[in-house]
UniProtKB/TrEMBL annotation:
Keywords: Membrane, Transmembrane, Transmembrane helix. The chain crosses the membrane at residues 93-111, 132-152. PANTHER family: MEMBRANE PROTEINS, PH DOMAIN PROTEIN. This is DUF4112 domain-containing protein. It comes from the Eukaryota. The lineage of its organism: Eukaryota, Fungi, Dikarya, Ascomycota, Saccharomycotina. It comes from Zygotorulaspora mrakii (Zygosaccharomyces mrakii). InterPro entries: DUF4112.
C-alpha cells in the first residue's frame, strides 16, 4: 500500500508519467458485440498491439516489434499494486550488482537497435543514452532509486523515441515519393513572381 502511494505520488512527479500511465505499445479500440440469445448489441473496448504504418519498410517493422517486445519484457510484464514492472526492476533489487547488470542489459538492447538502424542521428543516440544513464544514476540510491526506476522506464522511453524517429523518417520519404510534399524550384518561383 505504501509502495503504491510512494510511486504514484512522488516518483511520477520527479520523472513524469510515461504515456499517461497507459501501455505505450497497445491501443484501445471499440467494436459492437451482439448477444447470441437476446440479439442486443453493446459496445466493447479491447486492447491490441499498435499498428505500424504501411510506409515503414518490413525490416524496420521487425525492428520496432523487437524493441517493443524487449521493452515490454524488461519493464512492463508484471503488475504489482497498480504498478507495471518487469525483469529489469526485479534484477535491480540486488543492491549494486543488479543495477550494473540491468545497465549492461539495457545497453546491449540499445546497441543491437543502433546497429540495426545503421545511420542513427547523434542527437537521438544522446537522448537514448541520457535516459539510460539517468535511470542508472537513480538506481544507485537504495530504495527511492528503485521506485523512480519503476516509474521512469528508460527502455520504453527509448523504444517510443526510436519508433517515432523511424515513423517520421519514412513518412517524409513517402511524402516526397508520392508528390504530396511539393518542393518548388527556384526557377518556378521566379516565373510566378514575374507573372504579376
Amino acid at each position: 500500500m505504501f509502495w503504491n502511494y510512494l510511486v504514484k505520488r512522488y516518483a511520477k512527479k520527479v520523472v513524469g508519467e510515461l504515456n499517461e500511465g497507459k501501455d505505450p505499445f497497445t491501443e484501445e479500440y471499440e467494436y459492437e458485440r451482439k448477444s447470441f440469445l437476446s440479439g442486443t448489441t453493446k459496445v466493447v473496448k479491447r486492447r491490441r498491439e499498435k499498428t505500424i504504418h504501411d510506409y515503414v519498410p518490413e525490416r524496420e517493422k521487425e525492428l520496432i516489434r523487437y524493441m517493443r517486445k524487449k521493452s515490454y519484457r524488461m519493464e512492463l510484464v508484471f503488475s504489482f499494486c497498480g504498478m507495471r514492472l518487469g525483469w529489469i526492476n526485479i534484477i535491480k533489487l540486488v543492491p549494486v550488482i543488479g543495477d550494473i547488470c540491468s545497465l549492461i542489459f539495457t545497453l546491449m538492447v540499445f546497441n543491437n537497435i543502433k546497429k540495426s538502424i545503421g545511420n542513427m542521428p547523434k542527437d537521438l543516440q544522446t537522448h537514448c543514452l541520457a535516459n539510460i544513464m539517468i535511470d542508472f544514476a537513480f538506481s544507485l540510491v537504495p530504495i527511492v532509486g528503485d521506485v523512480v526506476s519503476i516509474a521512469f522506464k528508460p527502455n520504453c522511453r527509448n523504444a517510443m523515441i526510436i519508433e517515432e524517429f523511424l515513423d517520421s523518417k519514412y513518412r517524409k520519404l513517402k511524402n516526397v515519393q508520392d508528390g504530396s510534399l511539393r518542393i518548388r524550384s527556384p526557377s518556378s518561383t521566379a516565373n510566378s513572381i514575374g507573372d504579376f
